[in-house]
Model the fold of this input.
Amino acid sequence: MSNSLLEIENLHKSFGAVEVLKGVDCRMRSGEVISVIGSSGSGKTTMLRCINMLEDFQGGAIRIDGEEIGYETVDGARKRKKESEIARQRALTGMAFQQFNLFPHMSAIDNVMLGLVKVKRMSRDAARAVAERWLDRVGLRDRAGHYPGQLSGGQQQRVAIARAIAMNPKLMLFDEVTSALDPELVSEVLQVIKALAADGMSMLIVTHEMRFAYEVSTRVIFMNQGRIGEEGDPREMFNRPRTERLAEFLKSSPFTK
Amino acid sequence: MGYTLNFAAVWRSFDLLLEGLALSLGLAFAGILIGCVIGLVVALSLTAKSRLWRRPARLYVTIIRNTPILVLILFAYFALPELGVALSKTNSFVLTLAIYSGAYLAEVFRAGLLAVPTGLSEAGLAIGLRESQIRNAIVLPLMLRNVLPSLGSTFISLFKDTSLAAAIAIPELTFEARKINVETFRVIETWIVTSLLYVATCAILAALIRYAERRLAIPR
Amino acid sequence: MELSAFLDQAFAARMAILKGLGTTVAISALAICLGTVLGVGVGLSLTYGARPLRWLARGYTDFIRGTPVLVLVFASYYVLATVGLDLPPFQAGVLALTVFCSSHVGEIVRGALQAIPTGQTEAAKAIGLTFGQTFAYVLAPQAMRQILPAWVNTAAEMVKASTLLSIIGVGELLLRVQELISRTFLSLDFYFFAGVLYFAVNYAIERFGRYVERRAALPT
Done:
């Protein structure tokens, strides 16, 4: 089915002797916004990190627009692709991290420009124009020359999102991007993500923010102990959970109680 | 006691002392430059994933740090010729300084590398940068800011260690001082002035390093 | 082969080598012990002394630390004779190393004591302890945890510094080895041998230091 943007097939991942992903299947079409919820240790972040090969995986396959990610079969044996190939594939996705991970020694605009210049090989002027547009999009045009240390958490996260999206990825990956923020800074980040979703960006969002997941997602996936426990329409899932586990999990959030 | 202080004899030879000081600084500078290259390579080896790199690096650091520098200096100048490597006094001394400081700098750089959060490398990977690009554009610039204080104090230490060049008759500051001492018998004056020259130079170097730290600091 | 020539010579000179080793140990031990006693005094003065005492201690420490050890050794060797204290090289050298050691120990003690949060002293006062009791039961034990590893490091530095006394003619290990070399011309073998011996001693001290650090650590 290659009208899928993302295909995850029987994904298995272990950390040493501990199996964290026990056969995950997922198909995602372009334009979808999927929220991934679940308790800590359920494997949701690990699954995200496998998609852009920040983690290796031992079994199964991941495909973006039909292209095999990370591994290939050579003479019947499964081999990891060359590093340069994997680096190119990583640029197909964009990732925003819980800890923002902005480069502290570069200004906001330089943070956004780095990938454009070094990976996409744009000229500095072209890169600057793109970077300014995206900083404007996240509402931080006037902070372009500021350094991360001079920005609030919410502002840093918005710059981090701009940095990822400026690379024009096919799929955006959000890894609990509001979990490290003070409560009053959370909404500015969620607003930015909602706006990007409305523009048609394909997104996979790992989050604890249930109300946000309800409002923005086209689909919700509930992960439980390394497998997909339940998935479906947000209204269905939150109001009429089919499994015990999901019902238990939803009780823990004020929004879904 | 019968000793009257008379600094005149020392003042007359002050220019010799200053020349010696300049040579000391030059030796230290050459030593730390090469030492930095060695230290960086060894630090990257110490933090490498493969034992093939880590083991020799650790061995080098342990051996050098536990050997008196004077033994290294004498070995480099007197023993290496037997292995076919005959260097001039100055070259052998600078080489010794480089290998000696390289071992200490390796630890300094290693600590600096480890202090760079791994999340930053991951962010670099996520936008598609290669390992070498991440190292050059992100890790090393941040590491440099981390290590500047320790790098500075290592340089100051190395500068003081240049006094040992006197042991193989290189005409740096301590050697000149000893010559003046022996020739003029102005013992107290000679060594007070020499000491003060070292102390003052160290203080100036320390101030320069603090200035460099402020200039390179990331605005916050 | 060369190795047998070296072993023959080394064995023949074993008494001289052992005497040299003994002198090295004596120099190091004296410098460490006396230097530590003096250094603790300096450290306490820096931390708790009245202003004039603190300034004196500060001036002393900064001056000594800014001066290379070899300059201290030369100064001690040449200067003391002129002020009437005609010390043989051994004593002059040990004096220089003692002073050097004391400046390092002073800084270590000061750093460790100042690193203890003031809340500790306040809590002790609140219970009604005198300063003496506070120091003995609250401050010193906590300071020791930080002092011990640094002190072991300084001890190793003293062993390495003992080699400098060969330059003023004290018959420690390095000088004895140099005498052997001038007789046998086996530079490479004997300088390497000296390096190995010093490495062994210092490595043992390093391991001891790590053991002490582990034992002194608070349970987590």
Remarks:
- Residues 14-46 of chain B form the longest helix (33 residues).
